[in-house]
Amino acid sequence: EVNFADGWRAAKMGRRDASSARTPLQAVLMADSFAQKLRPLTLERPKALLPIADAPMLDYALEWLAMAGVEEVYVFCCAHAKQIERHLEERKWSTPSFQVKTVVSTSCLSVGEALRTVDQRNVIRGDFILLSSDVVSNVNIQGALQAHKKRREADKLAIMTMVTRKVSDRHRRHRLGCHGLTMALDPEDGRLLAYQEGTASGAQAMRLYPSITQGRKCVEVCTDLLDCQINICAPEVLMLFTDNFDYQQLRRDFVCGVLSEEELGNKIYVHQLKRGYATQVQNLRTYDAVSRDIIERWTHPLVPDSNWLLSQSMLFSQKKTNGIEDTVVKMFRGNVYKAETVKVDHSAKVGPSCYIGSRSNVGAGTTIAHSVIGKNCKIGGNCHLEGCYLFENCTVGDNVTILRSLLAGNVTVHAGATVQPGCVLSFGVVIGKNHTVPSYTRLSLLQPVEPEGGSEDELEYTRKGSCATLSVGSASESDGWDEEDTGELAELKPSSAAMNAAHAAALKDPSSLKEEVEWDVSLVGQGAGWKWELPTGAEELYSIAPPPMTELEDASEEDDSVADGEEMFDLADTEGVATDGFEQSVDDLELFFRKEVTETFLRCVKEKFDQTNAVIELNALKIAEDRTFADCARYVLITILQLNLPAPSIISQQYVPLFQENPPPLTSLAEKTSFLASLKKRLEEWGPLLCRFLKSLDDQVEVLLTLEEFCGEEGVFSNGDHGKTYIPVFLLLLQLLYQQDIISEEAFLDWAREKENAEEEEKVLLNLAMPFIQWLEMAESEEEEEEDEEDEDE
């Protein structure tokens, strides 16, 4: 667990030293992404205020800065500045020990112009953290701050430290939808020597000039670093932006420019994180990945059930609940989070990995998996939602299917409709009854805006006049600005006619329609909305629902820069195994780790490795993935159990023959006996390996909890793993693990005690195991009595 003690103490106490004029730790938080990858959403609401796991991105960034010990934050606002200012005021973020102030300029077109504006305001007095509001992080930044300070004391030309973390290239490209990145570093001090962004297919070849290698023993070229977009900067950084108007983008202009101007002597360093989480939400695919990571608790303590926006803050004495639903969120089995005011019909199935916000209702027979449902949403009966993100106030009728799509606030989907994977329905869009929205469609009540300059790196909003001149839905209504540059830029809002027509479609009340609107009927049916297209030409590759891996491979092959022989993590690489839904996409890190452990163990089985070689193989994987032996043992045990079942969907085709063709029926005593005899033989063979890995009582309890997930087909076992086959023999399975000395008596009893206060629906397997648990308790009691008698005799 990440330790924030130093940062919390700094924020709470202020560390004011009256004997010295200490400069407070400051931060510049960019509340404008200067990008259009999330259009049309960001035309009506700033990216910083888009919810991720039902909390605005901006709040994640501010909470992390507070935990990092920052005392003054300057939030730079450009697009939707009034919304940002209103949000900060409502949430009461600013306190005496954590001051949050805004810097507003609505004419900026890039990060460079924004930083020049900050420099002109003369608000930065020392080294500061430069952060984008779309970064979600829980890292302890103190180490990077101290290293930066130490370098600055020794060399005033050390002007910036960039924070990175290691990831695999396939994780960066396929899971996060980020471009490849190549960095050349001096391994002795972490100085950045060259920086080159790649393409969607990976990192590009880097040319190392003699000036880079001259006088150095070694140069380290890295393609496995993820730029977290967290920067520790000296005040000179702002001055350099002011002096050079060619600096527009932070990385490709400023960083590359500083590295090329060696004669000035300015130096940039790279700090590599050893632990913790930090990722920037760059596009819809990253949005999906970060949302899953939050639900899977990689971002702790910034997870829903910590109620970090609602409860007593770890940093401040007063609550920050103004404008927030004062509802506590609780966590249930399978990483399911529900607010206290949620109403879910008893016949509905929610989970695994779901969040349901306050005052939302879920109807009878509905199934929701791997989804986030915002506040005050109404989900009808017999619906199926998988991999979806619904903002606040959405309404979904009966018998609706929504797959891996995003629905913004106040969206209505009428009964019988289907929203296919990859769709984005912006604010207020309405989908007609029984209509099907094609995959990767973006809809909005705003008519399309012509892309500015054909680049993704433009504003979240648009210049006046760039909207197509149409009778309905144009940008005729816009907020005013307090700045003297009012009128240069304009936010877009749906016209009153479009809003009225959408309202009538949502209510299915033609009598309330004041003016006819020609919507894209082929996409919305009897609903409301226009189609939007982005100029990227690769919309599917960065969608909320990435395409099948075969399409990703085709895209990579078209680029000459992709590395030869690079392995891809493909969940759909088996033949004869179901590969729809989530199995076509790159799943979360835990599923990837499970796949690696499973296939490493299966290779040992197939090649008939002895136990010593198997330990070496698994130990190498443990080190590479920074895991424990117990983590490996959990999935080794499940793999042993699965060898008596059909092949799981995650494994490669070469290992399928090791498994059974069909699930065993297990209806008769003879079938159960034969099934367990086969399992006993495998456990006798590989049990010593498991015992070697399970060092402690806690490790064994974790194995039992994983076994529960497997038998319940939850979490990483929810995609056709046939785990429920073991439910009829669950009691006998536990006895077998006990007899083979894999799980100890104490571990079984601790597991049972841990489940005592769980909900009844979470105690199904415990109830099946109770005869065995009671037998163990009786044996333990008798043993204690015998020991007492022996003590008395002595």
Topology summary:
Blueprint: H1 5-13, E1 26-30, H2 41-44, E2 51-52, E3 55-56, H3 57-67, E4 72-77, H4 81-91, E5 99-104, H5 111-121, E6 128-132, E7 135-137, H6 142-154, E8 158-166, H7 169-175, E9 181-186, E10 191-197, H8 210-213, E11 220-222, E12 225-233, H9 236-243, H10 250-260, E13 267-272, E14 278-280, H11 284-295, E15 329-332, E16 336-339, E17 343-344, E18 349-350, E19 354-356, E20 361-362, E21 367-369, E22 372-373, E23 378-379, E24 384-386, E25 389-390, E26 395-396, E27 401-403, E28 406-407, E29 412-413, E30 418-419, E31 424-425, E32 430-431, E33 436-437, E34 442-444, E35 462-463, E36 489-490, H12 496-507, H13 521-524, E37 530-532, H14 549-557, H15 589-606, H16 611-625, H17 629-642, H18 669-693, H19 697-712, H20 730-739, H21 745-755, H22 764-793
Parallel strand pairs: 1-4, 1-6, 4-5, 8-13, 16-19, 17-20, 18-21, 19-22, 20-23, 21-24, 22-25, 23-26, 24-27, 25-28, 26-29, 27-30, 28-31, 29-32, 30-33, 31-34
Antiparallel strand pairs: 2-3, 6-12, 7-14, 8-12, 9-10, 9-11, 15-16, 34-37, 35-36
